[in-house]
Amino acid sequence: MPQITVDYSASLDEDFDRRGFALALHPLVVETVGARLAACKTRTRRTEDTVVGDGAADDALVHVGIDLLAGRSDEAKARLTEAVLALVPEFVKPAEGRALHVSAEVHDLDPSYRSR
C-alpha cells in the first residue's frame, strides 16, 4: 500500500519521464495521506489506443489511480488528487499540437487486500 497505477498514451513514450514521476509522487503521497515511503509501489502501463473526443487531434492522456488502505478523509484524498494533477505535467515534455489530458483518482483498497 499504496498501489499506484499510471496509464499513459503510447505517443508519450519518449516524452513522459515515468520513473522521475514515480519518484516525485511517492513523497507527495507520504506527505498528503500519511503513507510509508517504502510501501509506495507504482507501475506504469502504456496504452496503445487512446482516443479523445472525435479523435481528430493529437491528444495524449495520463491517468493516475491510487489505491490506499481505508481511513483517509475525503478531503485528504481530494488534496492528493489535486497534487497529482499538478505534478504530472512537470514530467511530460510539451509537444507542438498535442493536448495533454490528465486525470487522477484515489480509491480505498478492499479489506481483503494483503501484501508481503
UniProtKB/TrEMBL annotation:
Superkingdom of the organism of origin: Bacteria
GO molecular function terms noted in the UniProt entry: 5-carboxymethyl-2-hydroxymuconate delta-isomerase activity
Secretion signal, residue range per the UniProt entry: none
Record carries keyword Isomerase: yes
SUPFAM superfamilies assigned to the protein according to its UniProt record, in alphabetical order: Tautomerase/MIF
Segments forming a coiled coil: none
Keyword tags: Isomerase
Gene3D superfamilies in alphabetical order: Macrophage Migration Inhibitory Factor
UniProt-listed InterPro entries: 5-COMe_2-OHmuconate_Isoase, Tautomerase/MIF_sf
PANTHER family per the UniProt record, alphabetical: 4-HYDROXYPHENYLACETATE CATABOLISM PROTEIN
Protein name, entry field: Isomerase
Source taxonomy: Bacteria, Bacillati, Actinomycetota, Actinomycetes, Kitasatosporales
